[in-house]
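Students often ask what a holo structure prediction actually looks like on paper. The answer is less mysterious than it sounds. You provide the chain, you provide the ligand, and the output is a string of discrete structure tokens encoding the 3D arrangement of the protein together with zinc ion.
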Amino acid sequence: MQNFDYMTPTRLIFGKGVISKLPDVMGNFGKKVLLTYGGGSIKKLGLYDKVKELLADSEIHELSDIQPNPKYDPSVLDGVRICKENNIDVILAVGGGSVLDCSKAIAAGAKYDGDPWDLISYKVKVESALPIVDIITLAATGSEYDCGGVISRTETNDKIGYMDPHLYPAVSFLDPTYTFTVSKKHTAAGCADAMIHIMEQYFCEDSTLLNDGFMEAGLKSLMVNARKCLENPEDYTARAEMMLVCTYGCNDIYSLGNSSSGWPCHGMEHALSAYYDITHGEGLAIITPRWMKHILSNKTISRFVKYGVNVFGIDASLDEYEIANKAIDKTYRFFESIGIPMHLKDVGIDESRIGEMAHHVAVNEGLENAWSPLTEQDIAEIFTASL
Ligand code: NZQ
Ligand code: ZN
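The corresponding structure tokens follow.
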């Protein structure tokens, strides 16, 4: 087991109706609020009006239209400007992971005199940030319980995942009823994203029985509950369990003491969504089974056998490679069965920029140090196999 130094300062307030605590919680941070949200789903949900009603005593400024794969320009830059011009005390992010990730970049940029890209690109270390409270409306990223964010810069095809302990949300409200309206597409993509967060921690050199069991249970829970959510979008119990499993995703709790895998599928997917603005969870579901096939070897096989037997119930007495290949096939078939398009061509990506994207990933993502190292050529082969 590896050494670790772990703390998650985020307060989670979970369940139906918990928004009634919002005025008390926000009162701890000040009256000047930047309310951030996306393209309008929170208005359809009635959440926008509810927040305005509950915070009637606050001075609320707004940043709307934050897009999926949130953009540095204009969203982060506009948000930083609003915070500085109005001396904002706290950011209230209401929406999915994109809104929250954008809000994290704004929170850091608001406390920095230079170009906020310096912080996102790790040129300058974050020294402080505005507090963030969020109401998460989509079960997927786990941004509500981690200190990371992912920001896209269109002109350079960069999509950078950056992390800093100052960026943990102070408080996250998780009411599963707010996810009843999430479309089938985003319910499935959210499930795939959360599953692959777990896989990125599972497929590594050094793990424990405890972590393996926790992660295998997380994967099984996501597969069972995502199906239920797709069949009945208002199944509270299924939405609630899916929300919690997603929340744990990226804050390391699944893998304390594990060695790092290097998160290769995320490293590769970020290029796909930077170049083509596709849905993150779909891009991941497409490349992950191809990555699995690509790295299967005598060095990696024992993890695939464990995954196949414990997650999919494959007969442990079969030949190791038969188990591993069945497990990879079942992973693919599961994503396909929940409606995810399983080829890059299905999401508008052809072979024309594969070389360029593979080069970008090889230069920027450090995957030559992953558990199963990937060269530029490996990355290009995985993209090509995903077409
Ligand atoms: O913009 P609005 O109108 O709000 O609509 C959104 C958006 O179109 C909609 N939506 C959200 N909640 C809804 C809803 N529609 C109906 N009812 C609701 N309750 O869903 C669409 C997608 O939203 P988005 O926030 O983009 O999805 P998600 O939460 O999956 O976030 C994806 C982003 O997070 C990053 C991804 O790369 C991507 O940019 N990630 C962040 C991570 C983190 N911070 O830890 C880790 C992940 O690996 C991931 O990379
Ligand atoms: Zn992800």
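The radius of gyration is 20 Å.
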